[in-house]
Write a structure and sequence with these properties.
Length: about 240
Amino acid sequence: MHAILEFVRGAAVFVAFLAARFALLLIVLAALTVVFLAGLAVARAAGRLKRRAMGLTRVGGLLWRPGVFYAPGHAWLQALGGGRLRVGLDDLAQHLLSRITSVSLPQVGQLFRAGEPIAIIHAGRRQALLPAPVSGRVVAVNRGVSRHPARLHRDPYARGWLYALQPEDDGYRRMATGDAARQWFSAEALRFSHFIEDQLGLTAADGGELIAPGPSLLTDEQWHTLVETFLQGSDR
């Protein structure tokens, strides 16, 4: 009888030990979950504040930034000190270049004429040549976006910039900006939706809002047509 009691007592202690460890595990998991959710909330709040500070708004279902110039090939140009221009890709280009895997940037010091290929975006086995929006000399490149191409998607108007140029003149000031750029961007978003609809035979927009990841479904020929139409400086 004594042996049975000892066995029961030992079993009870063991079960209590397991229960305590399980409870501790639950507490740790709960704490980690709270920390993760709190961090996620902070990150989202910071992102909203950053977008608000930059004045980003939704136009045709895409993010649009005021205060910069827009080239026909969907590059944005931000005037910096010393007459330099920082260049990146707008949000329509992010939708077009889905699943970016690598970025090839120019070398500092290289001179480019407007329309010449200056950078290459690789999207898996496909690639898009990006033309220089203006003539000028490269004075800086974003090494961070070369190491982390996803920045082009996550933060296209800030940390996802590509390179900086010293333009040969101020002709870029004739590019669309302000309300004119917003109207152009809205028209381009609609044109992009219609292109996807025409090529794939499906509805890419709902009430003017772009919703389909169409570019990933295009054939190689359709892809090249898409890139030529929207990223090669065409302004039809």
